[in-house]
Design brief:
Blueprint lengths: L27 H4 L20 E2 L3 E6 L1 E3 L12 E5 L7 E22 L3 E7 L23 E5 L4 E4 L4 E11 L3 E12 L12 E4 L2 H16 L1 E2 L11 E2 L9 E2 H14 L2 H16 L10 E2 L20 H4 L2 H12 L2 H19 L30 H20 L3 H21 L1 E2 L4 E2 L11 H10 L7 H12 E2 L2 E2 L13 H13 L3 H12 L37 H11 L1 E3 L6 E4 L8 E6 L6 E8 L3 E8 L4 E7 L5 E5 L2 E5 L2 E2 L5 E6 L3 E6 L3 E9 L7 E5 L6 E2 L1 E4 L10 E4 L7 E7 L3 E10 L6 E7 L2 E8 L9 E9 L2 E9 L7 E8 L1
Length: about 800
């Protein structure tokens, strides 16, 4: 036996066994989990419960108005507006509580004269005037934000065009007469998702993060156009915004796709698939992919459309391959990838024709626009556009490999490597420590170029910390980052580009910076105020206000935190297409706990994690059938003990296979455990002292231990000189005699190997009394040894501890018993 001393934590790791094998002597608190048993994520869902949406409050009235409260949810009676010649207009301003969209209706109970009823709409309260907020639809909706109706009798007025996004509605008379209204509302026309439609969810100890996640999901839903809506579209499509533009935009899909994949899952996947298909069908003969289309556009089935460039720009054309790759990673839909991959190939051919002598992509005044249309064309070798081109080559290589085109994948990979070298040689500014805007505009610190360089892997790892630090010190303000330093460019904060910076920070481990960015940019969108809509805003002025009424306050390109929180805070993301393999690697930051699930083609990947007492960390991962993956827990590794389903798999740097964990490694910040199959994995992490925990070891082959069977040494990996191979009969045993200095409880760890195909159950008998059942799971081989721990009652002095099988399969091979001091 050996005795090992430590000045630190003086207890072997105690873990929860399966419900059938609960150990005695443990308190209720020890079995508690650090996350709520039933976290009520449903309370954050913003989709309307019914197709007919009615106002929730009256904001104000003026003029001759009676009983305006009849028009709100739960109101009774009718509201009456009356206007006399030369008198003031009667006005009611109604609040729907959040952004809604659809076909307005007005139920008229009575009227006198032939008054004109005027209804106007606004997302923000400050713009709800007679003409609305001015943000009419470009397509698939009403171009005006105010509508007139001449009322000639009782009945329901149904507006024939969609008012796509409004929280506030103003109703007034503009000519003499009276109108009695028994109801007003919006027939919801977007994708109406209640909690039942969510295949994924996210909930945490932060109310603000929870609101942000669901506001992003709801923003997407308001931009979704179900097929055949109002006779507009043939396909299910996703638009850029609820009220404006109401077009299918390829760059917006880069954010909207991941938002859907983690929330609605297969309930919304076809909206992304058909939008990508529609855009790809309008590819030009040059290879340029059209970046925007009206939703009423049919799929183009003829030859390539003659032309060189179209809507909108080279940069937007570059989002086709990333959109397709993201869709594939989430869905595993290889058939769709095969159908669209020729579009990718032709697109890359177009890009290659636009390279300069340095191997960099160049734009001119015909194709140099980007997300910041108000800043005009960017020409020359623009860093952001080249970073996007690099991402295209990387994603094309990935899709080529997935479709079996290995040689083509190699070509794209080599081109990407050459482009990366050219970008770093010609566009990185060693004086500023960041990438320049372009080869023509030097010294300007740009958010998009540098965030993309980090996120897409253009920037060398050694440069990343300096780039992120420079972005924060130069561009960040109270309400978010301005996109460019210096003058000459708009100072409007872009949640679209800030979303790319958010992913860049989280993907490189800057949890603190990422969470501050979420709070600065998106936190203000979910707090009560004149611009609260329950949805995400298109852009923001540096002082936190909205620039103008036409600004979209429900814009899908601003929903990046929804997918980022799932991928990096909950920690669940795909490794192989369709989550055939996955990784769960949470970034806790300052949170106490988080729970959620991600929809996959195999079923949900569910995750819960939380901080446990004494700097511990617990996590529960349920993996769907047919998948395998990696569970990464935040721990140093060198001073960490980890159990999975009650089996010790990591003890201060030493890995032991078991409980489905086939390998593990540490990078100093996380311990990464590979799991080979689906199922539930309950992970418990407890900090050690950096030195071995004090334990007493008792070898199974050394007296006073006893083995009803024989002592063997024919399977390697055991400790000491052998192990107990007990008889395969009920009642056989491996027994140890241990000494305890005082009565109480002790934590024991039994090391065993079970190379059989089935679990071997048994009883744990202490001093002649059965204290619990134990299950010895298969370890995969007789040479693979694992440790199972349990807490038992002990007497002062000597105690007999016996493991005895309860089936004819017998016990596993038993190597030793360790007892915590």
């Amino acid at each position: 036996m050996t005795r090992r001393r430590s000045a630190g934590l003086a207890a072997f790791v105690v873990v929860a066994l399966a419900a059938a094998t609960l150990s005695l002597g443990r308190s209720a608190a020890a079995d508690a989990v650090p996350w709520p048993a039933n976290p009520n994520w449903q309370q954050y869902v913003l989709g309307p419960a019914t197709p007919n949406v009615t106002p929730v409050a009256v904001v104000s009235t003026s003029g001759n108005v009676t009983n305006a409260g009849a028009l709100v949810t739960g109101g009774s009676g009718s509201a009456k507006l009356t206007m006399v010649s030369g008198g003031p207009a009667p006005v009611i301003i109604l609040d729907y509580g959040k952004n809604v969209g659809g076909f307005p209706y007005f139920t008229v109970a009575a009227q006198s004269g032939n008054p004109v009823l005027r209804a106007s709409y606004s997302e923000g309260s400050q713009y709800i005037g007679a003409n609305g907020d001015g943000g009419g639809a470009f397509n698939a909706g009403d171009r005006s934000r105010a509508n007139n109706y001449t009322v000639r009798g009782a009945g329901t007025i149904n507006h024939s065009l969609i008012q796509g996004g409004e929280r506030f509605q103003r109703i007034a008379l503009t000519s003499p007469g009276s109108v009695t209204l028994s109801a007003v509302g919006i027939r919801f026309s977007a994708y109406r998702a209640t909690a039942n439609e969510y295949q994924g969810y996210f909930v945490s100890s932060s109310d603000e993060l929870n609101k942000i996640w669901y506001a992003g999901a709801y923003t997407n839903q308001l931009s979704m156009l179900p097929p055949g809506t109002g006779g507009i579209n043939q396909l299910p499509l996703i638009l850029d915004g609820a009220k404006r533009d109401r077009n299918v935009w390829i760059g917006d899909i880069y954010v909207e796709g991941p938002t859907n994949y983690v929330s609605l899952g297969s309930n919304g996947n076809d909206y992304l698939k058909q939008s990508i298909r529609l855009l790809g069908s309008y590819q030009l003969s040059s290879g340029f992919v059209t970046g925007c289309l009206a939703p009423q556009s049919p799929v183009h089935t003829g030859p390539l459309i003659p032309g060189t460039t179209a809507c909108y720009s080279t940069s937007y054309s570059l989002y086709f391959a990333p959109d397709l790759a993201d869709y594939y990673r989430a869905t595993g839909d290889l058939a769709f990838v095969r159908s669209q991959f020729p579009v990718v190939q032709r697109q890359l051919g177009w890009n290659a024709s636009r390279l300069n002598s340095q191997g960099l992509l160049v734009t001119d005044t015909s194709d140099g626009l980007d997300w910041d249309w108000y800043d005009g064309n960017k020409t020359g070798a623009v860093t952001a556009y080249n970073a996007l081109y690099y991402l295209n080559l990387i994603e094309a290589a990935y899709l080529a490999r997935e479709t079996g085109q290995v040689d083509l994948a190699t070509q794209y990979t080599n081109k990407a490597a050459a482009l990366r070298t050219a970008i770093n040689a010609n566009l990185f500014n060693s004086s500023t420590g960041v990438y320049d805007l372009s080869d023509k505009v030097r010294g300007t610190v740009t958010q998009d170029a540098n965030a993309e360089a980090v996120l897409f892997g253009v920037a060398p790892a050694s440069a990343v910390p300096g780039i992120l630090t420079k972005l924060k010190s130069t561009l960040w303000g109270t309400h978010g980052p301005r996109p460019f330093s210096g003058s000459g460019y708009s100072t409007l904060i872009s949640p679209f580009i800030s979303g790319i910076e958010l992913n860049a920070r989280l993907s490189t481990g800057d949890t603190t910076g990422g969470m501050q960015l979420v709070s600065d940019v998106w936190g203000q969108m979910v707090r009560p105020g004149p611009n609260y809509t329950g949805t995400m805003w298109e852009n923001i002025k540096p002082d936190g206000s909205i620039e103008k009424g036409s600004t979209s306050l429900a814009h899908g390109w601003s929903s990046a935190p929804t997918s980022a929180l799932t991928r990096y805070v909950l920690g669940a993301r795909p490794v192989d297409a369709g989550y055939a393999t996955w990784i769960v690697q949470p970034q806790p930051g300052s949170l106490s706990w988080t729970a959620g699930q991600v929809p996959t083609p195999h079923g949900p990947l569910a995750v819960k994690w939380g901080r446990a007492a004494g700097d511990g960390f617990d996590m529960d991962v349920t993996a769907p059938n047919g998948t395998s993956g990696t569970i990464a827990v935040p721990a140093s590794g060198a001073d960490t003990a980890i159990t999975v389903n009650g089996t010790s798999v990591w003890d201060r740097g030493t890995f032991s296979a078991g409980a489905g964990v086939t390998s593990a490694r540490s990078d100093g910040s996380y311990v990464y455990m590979t799991v080979s199959a689906s199922g539930n994995y309950r992970v418990s992490v407890r900090a050690g002292s950096g030195e071995p925990t004090p334990t007493q070891r008792y070898e199974a082959e050394t007296a006073p231990a006893a083995c009803q069977g024989r002592i063997d040494s024919n399977h390697s990996g055991f400790s000491g000189t052998g192990f107990c191979n007990a008889d395969n009969t009920v009642g056989a045993y491996s027994q140890f005699t241990v000494n305890a200095p005082a009565a109480g409880t002790a934590t024991i760890g039994v090391r065993f190997a079970n190379g059989g195909a089935t679990v071997r159950p048994g009883n744990l008998v202490v001093n002649g009394a059965t204290v619990t059942a134990v299950s010895f799971e298969g370890t995969g081989a007789w040479t693979t040894w694992v440790t199972k721990t349990v807490t038992i009652p002990v007497n002062a002095g000597n105690n007999t501890i016996r493991f005895s099988p309860t089936t004819a399969e017998g016990l596993p091979n038993v190597d030793f018993l360790e007892v915590g001091a």
